[in-house]
Amino acid sequence: MAEEDLRRAVQEALYCERILAKSGENILRETLTDANSVEAWSHYPPGDVFDPTSGGQWYYHCHIPPADEVEHGHFHCFVRPQGAGGPVHHLIAVGVNPYGKLHRLFTVNQWVVGDIWLDAEQSIALLPRFDMDLAKPSYLVNRWLTAIVRLYQAEIAELIRERDRVLSAHAAPDGVQAREDRSLEVTSSLLVDLNKRAQELGA
After folding, report:
1. What Cα–Cα distance (Å) separates residue 145 from each residue in 16, 48, 78?
2. Which helix (H) or strand (E) holds 187?
3. The model's pTM
4. How many CA atoms lie within 13 A of 156 on its CB side?
5. What is the pLDDT of residue 154?
6. Other Cβ atoms closer than 10 A to 89
7. What's residue 203's pLDDT?
8. Residues 6+ apart with CB under 8 A from 127
9. Cα–Cα distance, 94 to 84 (Å, whole number)
10. Could you report the per-residue pLDDT of 86-145, keeping only the tens digit for each?
């Protein structure tokens, strides 16, 4: 992706954060605005968010215990290239801290999300399709997620390749396929800093 495209992506992500901050909100609070309480493993919003034009889909949830001392939860990002009734493919998970700030990007084993498996290069080819251009449940969260996936597209591509390398080398128990081995959940991970990336790009 050209540097100017990366600069626009980081500017859009930061713009979404600034607009929310002016109203005393952030990416996480905006995502959970209609939730009376937050329960581990539940999808927010219920039923997920799906863009019928791009096939992009996402939901937010959190785990107990959390992944580390920083992460509150994460957005799972998918694409359904054939539409709502077609197969769903997981691309990346986007972790945020309790203040809605970007924390990490990571891939997961197939059993975690139960998607239709695509090998690395087929998955990477879908990354440009993730474009959440919807007013609801939050236009700013939708555009922020879209911008994050665009900004870190090269890094996400490498994480997906690392996912396949890890799975290929994984020694699962007898009779269990690597993609079904519940001892292996996260297959690759990268800590990221949005403000640092903006500085690097001069945005």
Report:
1. 10, 14, 11
2. strand 186-191
3. 0.95
4. 25
5. 97
6. 20
7. 81
8. 91, 149, 153, 156, 157
9. 22
10. 999 999 999 999 999 999 999 999 999 999 999 999 999 999 999 999 999 999 999 999
- Listed in sequence order, the residues at least 6 apart from 39 whose beta carbon sits closer than 8 Å to its beta carbon are none
CB contact set of 179 (below 8 Å; sequence gap of 6+): 109, 110, 111, 117, 167
End-to-end CA distance of the chain: 16
CA distance 65 to 33: 23
Q: Which DSSP category does 138 fall into?
A: T
CA-based max dimension of the chain: 55
Q: Give CA–CA dist 124/117, Å, rounded.
A: 12
Q: Report the pLDDT value the prediction gives residue 17, as an integer from 0 to 100.
A: 97
What does the H/E/C string look like for 53-107?
CCCEEEEEECCCCCCCCCCCEEEEEEECCCCCCCCCEEEEEEEECCCCCEEEEEE
pLDDT of residue 41: 80
Q: What is the pLDDT of residue 174?
A: 86
Q: What are the residue ranges in the chain where pLDDT is below 70? A: none
Task: Reduce the DSSP state of residue 199 to 3 states and report it.
Answer: helix
